[in-house]
C-alpha cells in the first residue's frame, strides 16, 4: 500500500511538471497547423516529446519482461535444487532458508509488479499534450492543400508518392496509409477520378510491402479496406459494373479467408441484379492551362517594358536609387529589386513568428472578419514603433511617394501546405464611407520559393515568382478612386518551400496632393 501511494504521488508530480512547461499548456487549441509551414516545425518538436514518452513506456515494458523472464529461470533452479536436497531439509535447517525467503518474498514481489498498471503515468502526460495535436480540420485542410497542388500543377499521384514534383526529385516517399487517406478524402468529396489515382498508388505500395502487412493491420489499414474503397471508386466511375466485380473477385482469390471482401462482392452482385446503378459522377475541370503555366514560371505580357533606376519619387533616391522593373502600365505594376537585406528579412520574420494566427478576410456584407477556406496562410501584425518597422515605412514612402498616414500596419504572412490565396482584389468592392479604400498594395518577398508560390494577375497574364529582397507594388484604384478589375490576383499554391511575405496596404484619403485626379475629358455635344 505504501509503495502504491508513492507511485501515485510520483504521477501527480509528473503531471504538475508537464503542466508547467509552456509547450504543453492547454492554450494550443485550434492551432491551424496546415496554415503555416513555420508552425509545422513546432509540430515536429511536439511529436518528439510524444515519442520520448512512448519510448519511456517501452523501456518500462522491457523491464517488466526482463523481470518476469529472469524470475522463472531462477525459480526453476531453486526448485530443482531443493527437490534434489529434499531428504536433507529436515537434517539441515539452514538449507531451507533460501526456499522460505524465496516463497515469502519473491512471489509477492512478482505479484506486486503484475498488479501495477504500466503506462498510466505516460498516458496521463500524453492526454495533457493531446490538446496540441492536429485536429480533423487540420488534416482536411492539409488534404485540400495537397489536392490543390496536384490540380494546379497537373501532377499525378504516383509521382507525388515517390517525391517527384514537377521534374524535381525530393527526399521523401509516401506509405499506403497516406495514399489511402488521400483517396478516401477525395472519394468522400465526390472526386472519384482523383480517388482512383490515389487508391491505385496505395494498393501498389501495399502489395509491394508484404513484409509489413501485419503491422499495417495492427495500425488499422487492412487489405479489405483498400479493396473496398477501390471497388467503390470504380463502381462510381464505370458504367460497366463488370470491372469492379472482376476486381473484387481477384481480391478474394488473393485473400480467400477475408469475409469482408466476400460481403462487399455480394453487395455488388445484388446491386447489378436489381439495377441500382449509381450515376457516373464526372467533374468537369476548368481550363487550368494558363493558370498552370503562369504559376509554374513567370509570365510577362509587355515587350516594351523596361528596367531603370528610380531617382525621382523622393529626394533621397538621388543618393540611393532603387532598381525598378516596370511590369505593367495598365494597371500600374512594378517590381523593386534588392530592396531588403538578409538581416532585415530575418528580423521581420522573427518579429512575426510568435504572433502568427490564421489570416481572415473581411466580409463586406456581414461587416466582419472570418476564416476563408480560399486563404491558407497565417499572419502577424508588426509593431509600428519598432525601429525596423519605422524604417520600412520610410522605405515604402520612397518607393511609392504616397502618404502612409492612417494606412494599415505592416503584416507578415507565412503560407501553409499548398498555401495559396484564391483570386481576389485588394480594394473594397462595396462602397462604405467609413472604410477607407486601398489605393495601392506592396508585397515584400521575405523568402525564395523553390516551387510554386507565384503572385499571378490572370487578367493581364502576369506572374511574379517570389525572390527574397524584392518588393512588388501595384495600384488598386484608378485616378478617379475606382477599383480596377485588372488587379484581380492570386497567390499560387506553394509546392516546395516556405512562402514568407510582408504586405502593406496604403489608404486613399491622405493622397489628395500626392496622387491628384486626372481631368475627365468630355466631348461637347453638337446641337
How do you describe this structure in short?
The protein is of the alpha+beta class and 527 residues long.
Secondary-structure-based class equals: alpha+beta
Radius of gyration, CA atoms, in whole angstroms: 33 Å
Shape: globular
CATH superfamily grouping of the largest domain: q2cbj1_9rhob like domain
Strand adjacency order, main sheet: 3-4-5-16-12-19-10-9-6
In total, the number of domains comes to 3
Helix amount: 40-55%
Total helical segments: 15
Mean pLDDT: 79
Give the percentage of residues in beta strands: 5-15%
Gap between N and C termini, in Å?
111 Å
Which CATH architecture of the largest domain? Sandwich
Main pleated sheet:
9 strands, antiparallel
The number of strands is: 19
Amino acid at each position: 500500500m505504501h509503495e502504491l501511494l508513492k507511485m501515485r504521488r510520483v504521477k501527480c508530480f509528473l503531471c504538475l511538471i508537464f503542466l508547467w512547461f509552456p509547450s504543453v499548456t492547454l492554450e494550443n487549441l485550434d492551432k491551424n497547423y496546415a496554415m503555416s509551414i513555420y508552425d509545422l516545425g513546432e509540430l515536429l518538436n511536439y511529436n518528439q516529446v510524444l515519442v520520448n514518452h512512448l519510448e519511456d513506456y517501452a523501456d518500462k515494458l522491457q523491464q517488466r519482461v526482463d523481470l518476469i523472464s529472469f524470475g522463472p529461470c531462477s525459480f526453476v533452479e531453486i526448485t530443482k535444487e531443493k527437490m534434489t536436497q529434499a531428504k536433507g531439509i529436515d537434517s539441515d535447517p539452514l538449507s531451507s532458508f533460501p526456499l522460505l525467503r524465496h516463497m515469502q518474498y519473491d512471489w509477492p514481489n512478482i505479484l506486486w509488479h503484475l498488479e501495477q498498471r504500466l503506462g498510466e503515468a505516460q498516458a496521463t502526460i500524453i492526454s495533457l499534450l493531446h490538446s496540441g495535436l492536429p485536429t480533423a480540420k487540420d488534416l482536411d485542410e492539409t488534404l485540400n492543400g495537397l489536392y490543390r497542388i496536384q490540380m494546379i500543377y497537373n501532377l499525378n499521384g504516383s509521382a507525388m508518392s515517390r517525391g517527384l514534383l514537377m521534374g524535381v526529385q525530393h527526399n521523401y516517399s509516401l506509405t499506403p496509409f497516406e495514399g489511402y487517406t488521400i483517396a478516401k478524402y477525395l472519394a468522400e468529396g465526390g472526386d472519384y477520378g482523383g480517388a482512383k489515382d490515389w487508391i491505385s498508388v496505395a494498393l501498389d505500395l501495399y502489395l509491394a510491402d508484404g513484409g509489413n502487412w501485419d503491422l499495417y493491420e495492427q495500425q488499422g489499414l487492412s487489405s479489405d479496406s483498400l479493396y473496398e474503397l477501390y471497388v467503390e471508386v470504380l463502381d462510381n466511375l464505370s458504367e460497366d459494373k463488370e470491372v469492379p466485380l472482376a476486381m473484387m473477385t481477384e481480391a478474394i482469390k488473393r485473400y480467400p479467408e477475408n469475409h469482408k471482401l466476400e460481403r462487399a462482392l455480394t453487395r455488388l452482385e445484388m446491386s447489378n441484379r436489381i439495377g441500382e446503378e449509381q450515376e457516373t459522377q464526372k467533374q468537369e475541370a476548368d481550363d487550368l492551362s494558363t493558370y498552370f503555366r503562369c504559376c509554374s514560371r513567370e509570365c510577362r505580357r509587355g515587350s516594351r517594358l523596361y528596367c531603370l533606376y528610380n531617382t525621382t519619387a523622393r529626394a533621397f533616391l538621388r543618393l540611393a536609387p532603387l532598381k525598378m522593373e516596370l511590369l505593367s502600365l495598365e494597371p500600374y505594376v512594378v517590381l523593386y529589386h534588392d530592396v531588403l537585406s538578409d538581416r532585415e528579412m530575418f528580423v521581420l520574420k522573427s518579429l512575426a513568428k510568435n504572433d502568427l494566427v490564421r489570416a481572415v478576410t473581411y466580409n463586406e456584407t456581414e461587416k466582419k472578419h472570418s476564416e476563408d477556406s480560399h486563404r491558407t496562410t497565417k499572419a502577424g501584425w508588426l509593431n509600428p514603433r519598432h525601429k525596423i518597422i519605422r524604417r520600412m515605412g520610410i522605405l515604402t514612402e520612397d518607393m511609392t511617394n504616397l502618404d502612409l498616414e492612417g494606412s494599415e500596419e505592416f503584416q507578415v504572412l507565412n503560407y501553409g501546405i499548398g498555401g495559396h490565396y484564391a483570386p481576389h482584389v485588394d480594394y473594397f468592392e462595396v462602397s462604405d464611407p467609413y472604410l477607407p479604400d486601398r489605393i495601392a498594395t506592396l508585397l515584400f518577398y521575405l523568402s525564395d520559393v523553390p516551387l510554386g508560390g507565384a503572385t499571378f494577375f490572370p487578367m493581364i497574364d502576369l506572374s511574379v515568382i517570389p525572390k527574397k529582397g524584392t518588393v512588388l507594388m501595384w495600384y488598386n484604384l484608378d485616378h478617379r478612386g475606382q477599383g480596377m478589375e485588372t488587379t484581380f490576383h492570386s497567390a499560387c499554391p506553394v509546392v516546395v518551400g516556405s512562402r514568407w511575405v510582408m504586405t502593406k496596404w496604403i489608404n486613399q484619403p491622405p493622397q489628395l496632393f500626392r496622387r491628384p485626379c486626372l481631368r475627365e475629358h468630355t466631348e461637347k455635344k453638337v446641337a
